[in-house]
Design brief:
With about 350 residues, this protein is an alpha+beta fold. Helices cover about 20% and strands about 35% of the residues.
Length: about 350
């Protein structure tokens, strides 16, 4: 088990916004989730030493503290002096080097051959040792890049959108491989993504960035279950979000859908919106609580779900089997009061 502690508190003025990122990572994998251009990759590059922040601190406490960057102390270690592995989106393999040369590139000149052979075996690269990157599939290239990183025993692995250029089938295969790899890794890891499924699948902790600012952080399941803010709810995949009018402590009217809902917790004065995830509706009777009439709804068949758009704009996703092609929308739907998410602007 890792006893490492990565501290990041950095500030950088960018053309579009000022970036302010502050977090600590003690164990496992941290996900940084956010839209394109919000500062995710810039944060990784600042940790790796590829980009220099304007001010702040980046440090790693392992057996002893290593300061990677400290603007006040005028410390800024070169990337090769930081024991950090960076997996670029395009893998950054050397095109004129073979697989085994690429894997060995970060090792000292007198490295033990067992390290190299162990990495070749671990990443199932046997038989590919003499091939060049152009002769490899995307998945094989990613395995070579990961083997190269792990060969020199980094304290931290940084993964920058590692699946962004892959087709769906390959992505699913490599996600499982990478999850197993990170489970075995004794250091810390950070995954940058704009894909909420990846963030949920990989990450113990989650940090959500928007325009260079941290708008949520905490255990991944908690951030998804209680996003607290409208933008966090959107980024974690909540499809139904409405402004509200408060009726009393436990009842609100959704202004976008024209429905009155009962909620399970007292509504504070900060609450301006509600969210309902598209899978959280179920068939209902007319006299149930939080009932919605489904008249004039439109359904669209997908391979594994029906997407139903109600006449008031609410969106329901109903699971289906691949061979089922008939679906009758129930006359009424309901949502449990505990599944109505209270949100601040």
């Amino acid at each position: 088990m890792s006893n490492k502690l990565l501290k990041v508190d950095i500030h950088k003025k960018l053309k579009e916004f000022d970036m302010d990122v502050d977090f600590e990572l003690k164990k496992g994998c941290l996900g940084i989730l956010g839209p394109s251009g919000c500062g995710k990759s810039m944060t990784l590059k600042s940790i790796a030493g590829i980009v220099t922040p304007d001010d702040g601190v980046v440090s790693l406490n392992a057996d002893e503290e290593t300061i990677y960057y400290d603007s006040n102390g005028k410390i800024n270690l070169k990337p090769q002096k930081r024991n950090v592995g960076y997996l670029f989106q395009n893998y950054a393999l050397f095109p004129n080097m073979t697989v085994e040369e690429n894997v060995a590139v970060g090792l000292p000149k007198d490295y033990d051959e067992k390290i190299l052979s162990g990495m070749i075996e671990r990443f199932r690269l046997g038989g590919l040792e003499k091939r060049y990157p152009r002769q490899l599939s995307g998945g094989q290239q990613q395995r070579v890049a990961l083997a190269r990183i792990l060969a020199y025993g980094p304290d931290v692995i940084l993964l920058d959108e590692p699946f962004s250029a892959m087709d769906t089938f390959l992505k699913e295969q490599l996600r499982i491989e990478l999850i197993n790899l990170l489970d075995d890794f004794e250091g810390l890891s950070i995954l940058v993504t704009h894909d909420r499924d990846e963030a949920f699948q990989f990450c113990d902790e989650l940090l959500i960035l928007d325009k260079g600012k941290v708008i949520a952080k905490g255990p991944t399941h908690e951030v998804f279950e209680n996003p607290k803010k409208v933008q966090v709810a959107r980024l974690t995949g909540c499809k139904n979000i409405s402004k509200i009018e408060v009726i009393d402590d436990y009842h609100i009217k959704s202004l976008d859908w024209g429905v009155v809902f009962e909620v399970s917790e007292k509504i504070s004065s900060d609450i301006t919106h509600i969210g309902i995830r598209a899978h959280d509706f179920s068939p209902a009777e007319e006299d149930d609580v939080n009932v919605i009439d489904t008249s004039d709804s439109v359904k669209v068949e997908m391979p594994f779900e029906w997407e139903v758009t109600l006449s008031n704009g609410l969106w329901w996703k109903a699971d289906k089997k691949i061979h089922e092609h008939e679906f009758e929308i129930p006359k009424y739907l309901k949502v449990d009061s505990k599944n109505i998410i209270l949100l601040e602007e």
